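quick one, 546 residues, struct below
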Amino acid sequence: MQTSNETFYLYPTDKIFGAFSNEPPWLIDPQQIEWLGSIDAIRAASKEEVPLLLKKRRLPPGLRVMTTAYHLGKALAAWKIFDQRHSGERSRSGLARRLRIAFETLGPTYIKLGQIISSGEGIFPVELVSQFKLLRDQVRPEPFSSVRATIESELGMELEELFCEFDQNAMAAASIAQVHRAKLCSGEHVVVKVQRSTIDRVVREDLAAMSWFAPALVGRIPVTSLANPPALVELFAGTIVEELDFRLEAANMLDIARILADTNQTALVVPRPHPRYVTRKVLVMEELTGYPWDNVAEIQEAGVDTSAVIRAAMIAFMEGAMIYGVFHGDLHGGNLLVQPDGVVALLDYGMTGRLSEPKRLAFLKLLMGGTINDVRIQVAALRDLGALPPDTDIEEVITELDLDGPPVDPTTLTPDELTAQVKEITKALLGYGAKMPKELMLFIKNMLFLDSSMPKYAPDVDIFAEITNLAAYFATKHGEKIASDVGIDPRKVPVDLEGVRGSLGLDSSVQQITYKELHERRDVIRRRMQNRQRPKKHGLAGLRGK
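---
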């Protein structure tokens, strides 16, 4: 006979509110959480602050500009003297390395920016991504005295009144905050996220400095040509300002947990934030454990079906964006733990994508346009998302970028041919005033992460079959809503695999390709880019979908 306690642990009542673990340290009831009541006002105030931080100034904003100018100027001067005269790839690599060193020296805000760039493989230049990956472990933890002071100030109690155990050594230290294991005096094992003591002031000073310098960098630094410095700073500001209030992060946790529960996605769980101990600078949450995402061999040895794991992660991520307009914005190996039963613990919600309803509909059109291979729908959707100006001539863009032309297999092109195509497309897009909206950048960044995991998690899965199955899932489960939202009924319109082949640079004779084979093709392209030859002329269609 089960006791009430056993029932409590086997069937947590708060799982109707969200995708939480089966062994709760406490139960979540959104109606009883005091800090949740003002979350809309907090989020609105955060958004309103961004343009104020980035507003144009007639004079440089203080001493921080001088410090930033010195370190960035030093990096550029050294590049011009030692690296610029060399070949393109060597010159860009040298500049990226010097910028990375300058970012390290400039501290947490710049390291955070570098970390975001480092996870944007396929969005940002490869030289920047490669160098800035080295910034992921470069932030030292603050001394425990500062951690104690922040906790006691924010929660209004002595540390020992709250925690009977508190590990003074941080289990992780990032640019905005650090995380400690602890045990509440009431007995629950928790994780405590504590904001760095001066980061609030430093971020605001640094954003003012970045916005001052960014326009002057347009076209001057080769590795930033694709990144568009002013747009990158604007995107970064909108992201990092939200991360400075942990109440927003805790609310993000609850929102994504609710979406997972509403869609019956039981393959992912979200840690419960504490109902009381959440403030602007301190976040106490449930501790979840599991295998690190990158330990694929160990996960498979435990009997976990890794193909099912990554398929569930992909579906949940896309479902949140397409149907609800809310999704985790920072998927990477450090934020995912695979539990022995194959359930994925999803951590760190400081960076979360939120699409307004018009943008969600535009985003849905973008994905549906890709499914049926309709270029005009896709370009129009990009315009509506804010990636192109509102008055953009859709037909002109399609013609200039040759988006209706036949695909070219990029593995048949020389490195200089590939480089020339990228430069042509970049020049054309910048001419149209193109930029990367925050939500689109976060989505693409996450898709690239999941894509990079496929060769390890599901190397032998056929991409065409997987895309067909994914489309069938959304057609069956959400077909009526998608048809109502954007006028395209996925139940009646099949996936255009010719469009998929074209986007991959494949001809119609290719009926099957695995993730392993696809990444081998991409490795060929990367190697060729590193061994440049004389350029030839080709159209732009071959990069469609890249």
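The radius of gyration is 24 Å.
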